[in-house]
Amino acid sequence: MGVRERVRESGFVKKILSIGLALLASAALVACGPPPTYKVNYALEEAPEAHIPKKIVVLTPDIVLS
Amino acid sequence: MTEKVEEWGRQASGNVAKSLRTQLQSRPGVRIVTLPSLTRDEQQRVDQHRALYDQVAAAAFEHTMGKAGENPNVWPHKQSHFDYTLGNGLKFLKAKTGADAAIFAVGADQVSTGGRKAAHALGAIVGIHVDLGYSFLTIGFIDLNTGDVLWFDYEYYGNGDRDMRDAGDVDGIVQSILENYPGVEMKNHKVARQ
Fold first, then answer.
1. Which of A2, A61, B86, B134 is 20 to 30 A off residue B108, Cα-Cα?
2. Segment A4-36, tens digit of pLDDT
């Protein structure tokens, strides 16, 4: 199962929030700081100067539209 | 009923590639390298790694996103020691382009027809939910030397108000994903405060 199917079936998505939940989330954001939605490899975390890429190649994306 | 539309997919993929290049190029110290023409064998290897990224991204999504209370499948040790990798099969791209990293982008967009939108509006009146489609994009930075997934995030819109055929919509989605990149200082700051 690929990431598209996994996301659709998980029921766990970060951006589906009702207005009330969004307000609560905003309050929590102010109190606790931003949630770590992105994921950083430990190598990048430990030695960012050595691992943050300077030269990047963008490979052809795979976007499925229906 | 959903129907895959190849032409729309190509258009959306082009929008994503262009947006990634433009937005990253504008960052200080970042240089975007053009992908050279590849041999048939090299192209196959890239395609295989894109498919592998799809699977790895699915696992990373399932096991590292959210907290244990929100996501029953979360693995805390993977959150604290994010070590997903594709293996070093793309090393040839480093030799060929001089790039340190490659970006994989995988996503989907379900565009609603006029009939579905009308059904959604009608359903809202009588209390029946009609799904309006969704837009989803994941971006992964892959170390070309090791294959390690250096950075990973995604964006999901479940209300059908984005259309990835539209370059402006794609710019917004990509910007939203990249706003935390690389995010190391922010993450370390958060860890230090805990």
1. B86
2. 888 887 765 554 444 455 555 555 555 555 456
Please judge whether A55 and B184 are an interchain contact, meaning their C-beta atoms are less than 8 angstroms apart: no
Domain boundaries, chain B: 6-28+40-193
Residue A12: closest CA among chain B residues belongs to which residue? B71
DSSP string, chain B: -----HHHHHHHHHHHHHHHHHHHHTSTT-EEEPPPP--HHHHHHHHHHHHHHHHHHHHHHHHHSS-TTT-TT--HHHHHT---B--STTHHHHHHH--SEEEEEEEEE-PPPHHHHHHHHHHHHHT-------EEEEEEEEETTT-BEEEEEEEEE-SS---TTSHHHHHHHHHHHHTTSS-HHHHHHHHHH-
Domain ranges of chain A: 1-35
Model pLDDT for residues B78-132, shown as the tens digit of each residue: 988 999 999 999 999 999 999 999 999 999 998 877 776 777 677 777 777 767 7
Q: Decide if A9 touches B, using CB distance below 8 A.
A: no
Task: Compare all CA atoms of chain A with the CA of B160 and give the residue at the minimum distance.
Answer: A16
